[in-house]
Amino acid sequence: WLQRGIHVVTPNKKANSGSWSSYQLLHARGDSRRGRYFYEATVGAGLPIIRTLQDLLHTGDRVRRVEGILSGTLSFLFDAVGRGVAFSEAVQQAVQRGYTEPDPKDDLSGVDVARKLAILARECGKPLEVDEIQVESLVPKELQECQGATFLERLVEFDVAMQRRLEAAKNQGSVLRYVGVVDEAGRAEVVVRGYPADHAFATARGTDNVVAFTTDRYLAQPLI
């Protein structure tokens, strides 16, 4: 399409998070001035996250770290459990509201967040592959093969473990959030992390996406 001069505008993450070689080829075609390739909505939906990152780089800033809540579904889940909703019930609510993929394990696995993180890292020139990102999955090992209603029913068995993590964080004055982090060395992880109650990530509500860029000019400026 691009070679034929057909413009492509997409929210689909798979092309930008595929192999580094295919990513380079795609962007070389998209920069050819024949067919243009636009992909802002691959990260953060309607937020101008990619454009903001590009602007920082194009004006000569140095991006030291990108950190953010990159999944509306997981943002909803951790907001809910932070308000006292059991984790399994929060997942049920997300399914009923249409926030999750048809199989909620696709969201809980963290792979979707890892793809978005790889896209942001590549914007910074890091040849990061998705399988190089350390991902903390929220799918219990015992339930990886469970499907549909069976998975949701059995997820109740693991509410206590999540509640213990919440209480431990609360005792330290922190709020749990599911985030992706990549630094300037290309080290990347998708993980559950605690933040002070007044942190921009901790104040996220509902399906909010929030991203912070730490650069030579700016210290962790949040984009919500």
Features:
about 220 residues, alpha/beta, six-stranded mixed beta sheet, 8 helices, two-stranded parallel sheet
Supply Rg: 18 Å
Class inferred from helices and paired strands = alpha/beta
Distance between the termini: 33 Å
Helix and strand pattern: EHEHEHHHHEHHEEEE
Describe the structure in your own words.
35% of the residues lie in helices and 18% in strands. The chain starts with 7 loop residues before the first strand and ends with a strand. With 224 residues, it is α/β, with parallel strands linked by helices. It has helices spanning 20-30, 49-58, 72-82, 87-96, 105-108, 111-123, 148-154, 159-171; strands at 8-9, 37-38, 63-69, 134-135, 174-183, 188-196, 210-215, 221-223. The radius of gyration is 18 Å and the shape is globular.
What are the SSEs and their pairings?
Layout (H helix, E strand, L loop, with lengths): L7 E2 L10 H11 L6 E2 L10 H10 L4 E7 L2 H11 L4 H10 L8 H4 L2 H13 L10 E2 L12 H7 L4 H13 L2 E10 L4 E9 L13 E6 L5 E3 L1
Helix pairs in contact: 3-4
